[in-house]
Amino acid sequence: MTIPSKMEETVLENVYQANPCQKQRLTVQNVIDKILDDMCGGSKFEQTCDIIPVGNPDNDVTGIVTSFMATYDVIQEAVRLGANFIITHEPTWFTGNDATDWCAQDSVYLAKRKYLEDHDLTVWRLHDHMHLGSDTDYIYEGLLTELGWHQYLLPDEKYPWIYELPETTVGKLAEFFKAKLHMQTIQIIGAPQMKVKRLGILVGGGSLGFGAEAMPMQVMERNRLDLLIVGDITEWTICAYINDAYQMGFNKAMLTLGHERSEEAGMKYLAPWLQERFPDIPVSFVDAKEPFKYL
Q1: Do residues 207 and 155 lie in contact, with contact meaning Cβ atoms separated by under 8 Å?
Q2: Strand 187-189 vs strand 253-256: parallel, antiparallel, or unpaired?
Q3: DSSP 8-state symbol, 15
Q4: Residue 96 contacts residue 121 (beta carbons within 8 Å)
Q5: Residue 224 pLDDT > 90, yes or no?
Q6: 145-173 confidence digits (pLDDT tens)
Q7: Is 27 helix (H, G, I), strand (E, B) or coil?
Q8: Which residues contact 243 (CB under 8 A, 6 or more apart)?
């Protein structure tokens, strides 16, 4: 799509005013502003990774795609769908703040950027505001909706981490998560037949402790958990802790979902949330999919 000149924008505005039935322009920035207003009451963070890493905020929106990450496959699907605005949860340029100083001459970066620019796509990252911009963590909300676990959430927890289920086993929960999140395999620590009732979920990088390595262990001990379900892992922290506990005879276990599988559902449930607010714009969820294949 060619960016309108100032003269063309004036002509368009006159056309809209002369034809009340004509749909009003909706730009990328209009969509971003509406999301932040409705989700968080406006922009909350001066320092944030919620930026436009590529594209033009003044482009008219023809369609929106939501996804955990703007992978090349997701970008191609957006083009196929006729969407020119991708809302991603994680970076486009392979580092946490989407910096490009390190990759200005990198072949992978240049090829991906060229494809985005050739198709006039704009990408916006919705991360900090989705997690922390309001009382609702929308990534957790999407996962809980996908799992159907709202009734098991313990109401006295500040964060949506702790659950009490009807008694089940590690093995049955592993199969449940594999089916729900379309996983071929799942990593566990503990015995599949181990009984489970109280459990915690730390999605994405939350299981790394947000800079405090001891946090996941403290969550497990403080809440007397049988099972911790995690996204990312460091093998000398929560993995080692639960493995030692299991080897010593404690009723402790862990399921590892990975970062992408533990957070993708939040972007899935963002799509209908957006469609309610932008009924005239097609909104689609495109699954970035688990990045690994297993041999």
Answers
A1: no
A2: antiparallel
A3: H
A4: no
A5: yes
A6: 999 999 999 988 878 899 999 999 999 99
A7: strand
A8: 189
CB contact set of 282 (below 8 Å; sequence gap of 6+): 62, 63, 64, 81, 82, 83
pLDDT at 209: 87
Q: Predicted confidence band at 3 (pLDDT cuts at 50, 70, 90)? A: very low
Phi, then psi, of 2 in degrees rounded to 5: -80, 135
Instruction: Average the pLDDT over 25-35 and give the result.
Output: 97
pTM for the whole structure:
0.90
Tokens linked to 42: 């406006």
Q: Which long-range contacts (CB under 8 A, 24 or more apart) does 220-226 make?
A: 220/252, 223/157, 223/161, 223/162, 223/198, 224/198, 225/162, 225/198, 225/199, 225/200, 225/252, 226/194, 226/195, 226/196, 226/197, 226/198, 226/199, 226/251, 226/252, 226/253
- With beta carbons less than 8 A apart as the criterion, state whether 258 and 231 touch: yes
Which DSSP state fits 244?
A: H
